[in-house]
């Protein structure tokens, strides 16, 4: 075989692998990019304004954190063909099952409200009234699921994931100091000293990296997509690519805000967008579009995470491949969550700030349990066989989970008692 | 109609409780320790939430 023939076969093999990856990719990319939801965008904007580019290296360090946790859901879903809620019920009994299910549904519903707050605030910048935003979002999300095919839903969602990259051109628009950005990638102490405020921002950024709904969503999505053991390598790569992209987007948000609004106190991402529009019209517009898209992606995944979990436990048909007539309860749960969460945002004088704070506390009651169950299940030889955690994976995962549990608990405590770290 | 709906769902919950009454995971010492620690952690969180709730009410 001459060199050209070898190259041709190599190209054909790579092309085939790429085509297979494009078919199998989805759950990892979607869950990771949706992780940058409306609340996440606010955290990154506030971080960028406070510490400039100096926080970027910390976000880069969060890539393996997100990857190692979410990768476990791929293996568990592909091997057991069960969602996380069902796996908890079956392996840990009804007590832990109900605790996880009720907590997940409640936590998801509260988070859904925060996504609607973000979306209405983002479109409010362009003069769209909140009721129209909510109605439009519910109609769009209804259209996405009612076609009765998981594949179509996933590909539409991927388009919104692509839109999430809008922060990248926004960053080029504001012309950041490239040398300073590159310095921010190198480990450093943001702000020059370790104080309570830095600790709070570290906790907030870790808190936005892993949320309980992500574990339930990705495992259920892997099952609904029909992935099997042989698809695990593609699922892992999908998750890795997603983890990198989510950090890239977060870093670019920090670059945009850190360049234009250094030292400004940011309460929410919509406020940052308005301020950006004052000096850099397009960057501010992109920021607002990105905020809406982030809220939409979050809402798409969160509402499905709850519906899938309820369907698994109550024995309803619960696949996006089912038509509405075949899975009425699954779709009823999906729309009920959306309509009620959207409705809360429209109530005049609703305690939206309190809800946003409460989400962090409720999430922390579920996150440690979901993570511990995940590690215990991944170590069960009877369930996982050759796909169980190796010693290396256990050391990494137990370390990551311990840090996440401690820091997210402290973050929740600081939300409950604001003076705790001041 | 509402009563029927509730009765049907309570029966379903009872069925689920029966179905998952016994955990299928082997309850080894490490698993039991993890679950005990999780219970303690949740009790602590609930305690904190209650404390916050009472202190807000009495303020």
Secondary structure elements and their pairing?
The complex is a heterodimer of chains A (422) and B (59).
Chain A: H1 3-24, H2 27-34, H3 38-51, H4 56-80, H5 84-124, H6 130-145, H7 150-163, H8 167-173, H9 178-185, H10 196-209, H11 212-225, H12 232-260, H13 269-279, H14 281-314, H15 328-346, H16 352-378, H17 381-384, H18 391-416
Chain B: H1 2-19, H2 29-58
What does this structure look like?
The complex is a heterodimer of chains A (422) and B (59). Chain A is mainly alpha-helical. Chain A is 79% helix and 0% strand. Chain A is globular, with a radius of gyration of 21 Å. Chain B is mainly alpha-helical and 59 residues long. Chain B has helices at 2-19, 29-58. At the A-B interface, helix 5, helix 16 and helix 18 of A face helix 1 and helix 2 of B.
Key attributes of the depicted protein:
heterodimer, A: 422 residues, mainly alpha, B: 59 residues, 2 helices, flat
Task: Summarize this structure briefly.
By secondary structure, chain A is an all-alpha fold. In chain A, 79% of the residues lie in helices and 0% in strands. In chain A, helix 2 runs parallel beside helix 12, helix 3 packs across helix 14 and helix 6 runs antiparallel to helix 15.
């Amino acid at each position: 075989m001459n060199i050209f023939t070898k190259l041709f076969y190599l190209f054909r093999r790579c092309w085939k692998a790429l085509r297979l990856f494009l078919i199998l990719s989805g759950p990892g990319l979607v869950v990771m990019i949706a992780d940058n939801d409306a609340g996440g965008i606010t955290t990154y904007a506030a971080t960028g304004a406070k510490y400039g580019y100096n926080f970027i290296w910390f976000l880069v360090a969060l890539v393996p954190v997100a990857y190692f946790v979410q990768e476990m859901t791929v293996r568990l879903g592909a091997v057991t063909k069960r969602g996380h809620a069902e796996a908890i019920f079956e392996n840990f009994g009804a007590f832990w099952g109900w605790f996880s299910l009720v907590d997940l549904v409640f936590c998801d519903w509260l988070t859904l409200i925060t996504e609607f707050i973000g979306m209405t605030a983002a479109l409010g910048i362009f003069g769209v009234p909140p009721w129209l935003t909510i109605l439009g979002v519910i109609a769009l999300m209804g259209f996405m699921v009612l076609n009765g095919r998981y594949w179509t839903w996933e590909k539409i969602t991927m388009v919104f994931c692509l839109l999430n990259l809008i922060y990248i051109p926004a960053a080029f628009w504001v012309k950041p100091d490239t040398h300073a950005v590159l310095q921010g990638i190198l480990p450093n102490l943001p702000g020059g000293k370790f104080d309570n405020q830095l600790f709070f921002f570290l906790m907030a950024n870790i808190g936005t990296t892993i949320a309980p709904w992500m574990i339930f969503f990705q495992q259920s999505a892997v099952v609904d997509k029909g992935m099997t053991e042989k698809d695990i390598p593609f699922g892992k790569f999908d998750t890795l690519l997603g983890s990198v992209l989510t950090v890239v987007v977060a870093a670019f948000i920090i670059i945009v805000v850190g360049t234009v609004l250094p030292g400004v106190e940011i309460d929410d991402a919509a406020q940052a967008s308005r301020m950006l529009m004052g000096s850099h019209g397009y960057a501010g517009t992109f920021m607002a579009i990105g905020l809406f898209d982030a809220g939409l992606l979050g809402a798409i995944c969160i509402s499905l995470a709850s519906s899938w979990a309820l369907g698994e436990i109550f024995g309803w048909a619960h696949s996006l491949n089912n038509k509405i007539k075949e899975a009425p309860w699954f779709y009823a749960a999906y729309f009920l969550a959306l309509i009620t969460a959207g409705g809360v945002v429209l109530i005049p004088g609703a305690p939206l700030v309190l809800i946003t704070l409460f989400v962090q506390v409720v999430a922390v009651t579920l996150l440690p349990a979901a993570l511990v169950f995940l590690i215990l299940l991944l170590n069960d030889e009877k369930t996982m066989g050759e796909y169980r955690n190796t010693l290396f994976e256990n050391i990494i995962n137990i370390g990551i989970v311990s840090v996440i549990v401690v820091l997210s608990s402290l973050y929740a405590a600081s939300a409950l008692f604001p003076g705790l770290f001041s | 109609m509402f009563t029927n709906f509730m009765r049907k769902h309570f029966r379903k919950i009872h069925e689920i409780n029966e179905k998952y009454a016994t955990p299928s995971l082997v309850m080894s010492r490490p698993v039991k320790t993890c679950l005990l620690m999780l219970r303690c952690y949740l009790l602590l969180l609930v305690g904190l939430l209650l404390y916050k709730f009472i202190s807000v009410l009495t303020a």
